[in-house]
Design goal:
single chain, 368 residues, alpha/beta, Isopropylmalate Dehydrogenase, 2 domains, twelve-stranded mixed sheet, 18% strand, disordered C terminus, EC 1.1.1.262, NAD
C-alpha cells in the first residue's frame, strides 16, 4: 500500500508532563504502524525530541507546520509543531497551567485538522483534567472537548478491548447525577450508537446487553424503580426498532457473560459500572515490579462527525519520564482509528452517525 492510499492519523501529545509523549513516540517505533497508516504527532516538537533523547530512542523528530509537508517515513516522526512548551519549566508528574494549555492546544488542533479533512482520523494521548482547567478550559475530558468543538449533541464513550466492548449512558458526572440521567430516550440513543459502532468495527455479533442500574436490576422495584421505569421500556422500544438487545441484566451477571463474547457490546449506566470490569480485563498489574505490565484498551467517541479514538488510561504521572510506560493502548487506538477511517472512506460517515451495512472485506489489523 503506498502512502496515498493510507489514512492520515493525527495523534495528540497528551499532557507533556505525563507518559503521553513517551507512548506516542514508542508506538511510532513500531514499523507496522507505517504499514497501515500515515501517522503524524500533534504537539510540541521539543517535548518529543526531549523524551526521545532521555530514553535513547533511535528516531528523528521532524517538525512540520503543514500536513502537506509530512513525509510519513518510518524512523522519522513528523510532528505538527505547536511550539508551546518551555522545557526549562516542565516537570514530569506535575500539574501546571502550561502543560494543560499545551495539551488542550494539541487536542483543539487535531480536531481542526480533521474537520478540515486534512487528516482522516484522530487519536488522543492522556490529559490531566486539573491541568486543563488550570489553563482556563473548563471541560470534564476529551469527550466533552470534541463534542463542543464539533457541535455534537448526541455522543457516547465506547471502550474496546478484545471481546469486551462497553458504551456508557453517562460518564464524567457524579454518581448522584448519573442515576438521574438514566432515562429511556438516552438509553435508546446509546443502544443505537453502540449498534452502529459495532458495525463500523467490523463485528458480526451485534447482540447488545443492557446493564441494570440497581442491585439485581432493581428486583421488581425492591431496590429502586429506574430499571422498571426507564431501562426496560428502552429495551422494549429498541427491540421494536430491530435491535438485538437484552436487558436490564444485573451488572454482575452481564459483564461476566460479556467478557466471553456472549454480547457483541454492552450498555453501562454510568462511568465506573463500565470502566471497572473493562480495566480488570485490559490492565495487567505486576505486583512484584509494582507497575503495569500491559495497559490495553481503546476509547472511541461515537456520534462525532470526525473519528476519535484514545488510550483508555490516564497520565500515569508517577512513571512519567522513566521509560517504563507501555505503548500497547496507543497501538490499539491507532489500529482502531485506521479501521474506522476505512469504513468512513467507504461510507462517507464516521462510526455511530447512522446505521450501515457491514463490509466483510475490512481487515482487523493486529499490531502484536
Amino acid at each position: 500500500m503506498n502512502n496515498e492510499e493510507k489514512p492520515i492519523i493525527g495523534i495528540t501529545m497528551g499532557d507533556p508532563a505525563s507518559i503521553g509523549p513517551e507512548i506516542a513516540v514508542k508506538a511510532l517505533l513500531n514499523p507496522t504502524v507505517y504499514e497501515i497508516c500515515n501517522p503524524v504527532l500533534v504537539g510540541d516538537a521539543g517535548v518529543f525530541s526531549d523524551i526521545a533523547k532521555r530514553l535513547n530512542l533511535n528516531v528523528v523528530i521532524r517538525p512540520i507546520h503543514s500536513i502537506q509537508n509530512a513525509t510519513f517515513q518510518f524512523g522519522t516522526i513528523d510532528v505538527y509543531d505547536l511550539n508551546n512548551v518551555a522545557l526549562s519549566d516542565l516537570r514530569f508528574g506535575e500539574i501546571s497551567a502550561m502543560a494543560g494549555e499545551a495539551a488542550f492546544a494539541s487536542v483543539k488542533t487535531v480536531i481542526d485538522l480533521a474537520m478540515a479533512d486534512e487528516i482522516d482520523a484522530t487519536v488522543t494521548g492522556p490529559i490531566n483534567k486539573k491541568s486543563i482547567n488550570e489553563a482556563g478550559h473548563h471541560f470534564a475530558g476529551h469527550t466533552e472537548i470534541y463534542a463542543h468543538y464539533t457541535n455534537t449533541k448526541k455522543y457516547g464513550m465506547l471502550l474496546v478491548e478484545d471481546q469486551l466492548k462497553v458504551i456508557h449512558v453517562s460518564t464524567h458526572v457524579s454518581l448522584r447525577q448519573a442515576c438521574d440521567l438514566v432515562k429511556k430516550d438516552r438509553i435508546l440513543e446509546v443502544i443505537e450508537l453502540l449498534h452502529n459502532g459495532l458495525i463500523s468495527l467490523g463485528e458480526s455479533n451485534l447482540k447488545i446487553g443492557v446493564a441494570g442500574l440497581n442491585p439485581h436490576a432493581g428486583d421488581s422495584g425492591l431496590f429502586g424503580t429506574e430499571d422498571d421505569e426507564e431501562i426496560a421500556p428502552a429495551v422494549t422500544e429498541a427491540k421494536l426498532r430491530g435491535f438485538d438487545v437484552e436487558g436490564p441484566v444485573p451488572a454482575d451477571t452481564l459483564f461476566s457473560k460479556a467478557a466471553t463474547g456472549y454480547y457483541g457490546g454492552v450498555v453501562a449506566m454510568y462511568h465506573d459500572q463500565g470502566h471497572i470490569p473493562f480495566k480488570l480485563t485490559g490492565f495487567k498489574w505486576n505486583a512484584e515490579k509494582k507497575q503495569m505490565d500491559s495497559v490495553k484498551g481503546v476509547n472511541i467517541t461515537m456520534g462525532l462527525p470526525i473519528i476519535r479514538t484514545s488510550v483508555d488510561h490516564g497520565t500515569a504521572f508517577e512513571i512519567a519520564g522513566k521509560g517504563v510506560a507501555s505503548p500497547d493502548a496507543m497501538l490499539l487506538a491507532i489500529e482502531s482509528a485506521v479501521q474506522l477511517a476505512k469504513v468512513k472512506n467507504k461510507t462517507g460517515t464516521p462510526a455511530g452517525m447512522k446505521e450501515r451495512k457491514s463490509d466483510k472485506n475490512l481487515r482487523q489489523y493486529s499490531l502484536f
